[in-house]
Amino acid sequence: QVQLVESGGGLVQAGGSLRLSCAASGGSVGYSHWGWCRQFPGKEREFVAAITFSGRTTLYADSVQGRFTISRDRTKDAVSLQMNNLKPEDTAVYYCATEADWGRLTRSLTPRFWGQGTQVTVSS
């Protein structure tokens, strides 16, 4: 049974940086794109960033463009999200996801696999 395991969340001051990581365990996900979403209290999950299986194409939400960078390690089923210049409004639970269908990963947010979520808190 494949599981996505996340790490790297925590508390940081505004303007600071955090790096989130996510890796698959229990098996391989095969051909699959990777992404990150976040969820604010009482809200639905929203798209943050995604990267194609090849790593050649990335997509970002407008709110994080220029501050966040998604990358993946093709030698293993893993993805990272480097978050710079963090703002208090970035405070949320962040989830990684993987899915072979780009639309399901970036628009409908219905991937095959979700991570368990990691809390990111940015203080002002």
- Span between termini: 40 Å
Low-confidence parts lasting 5 or more residues at pLDDT below 50? none
The overall pLDDT, averaged over residues, is 96
How big is the Rg? 13 Å
Number of strands: 11
Task: Using the alpha-carbon principal axes, give the shape.
Answer: globular
Task: Please outline the major beta sheet.
Answer: 7 strands, mixed
Q: Structural class, from helix and strand content?
A: mainly beta
Task: Give the strand content.
Answer: over 45%
Number of helices: 1
H and E order: EEEEEEEEEHEE
User: What is the helix fraction of residues, given as a range?
Assistant: under 10%
Short description:
With 124 residues, the chain is mostly beta strands. It has one helix at residues 102-106, and strands at residues 3-7, 10-13, 18-25, 33-39, 46-51, 58-60, 68-73, 78-83, 92-99, 113-114, 118-123.
Explain this structure to me?
This protein has 124 residues and is mainly beta. It is built from one helix and eleven strands, in the order βββββββββαββ. The chain has one helix spanning 102-106, and strands at 3-7, 10-13, 18-25, 33-39, 46-51, 58-60, 68-73, 78-83, 92-99, 113-114, 118-123. The strands form two sheets. Strands 2, 4, 5, 6, 9, 10 and 11 form a seven-stranded mixed sheet that branches. The chain has a four-stranded antiparallel sheet with strand order 1-3-8-7, with no helix packed on it. β5 and β6 (58-60) form a beta hairpin. The longest helix is centred in the C-terminal third of the chain and has 5 residues, at 102-106. The termini are far apart. The mean pLDDT is 96.
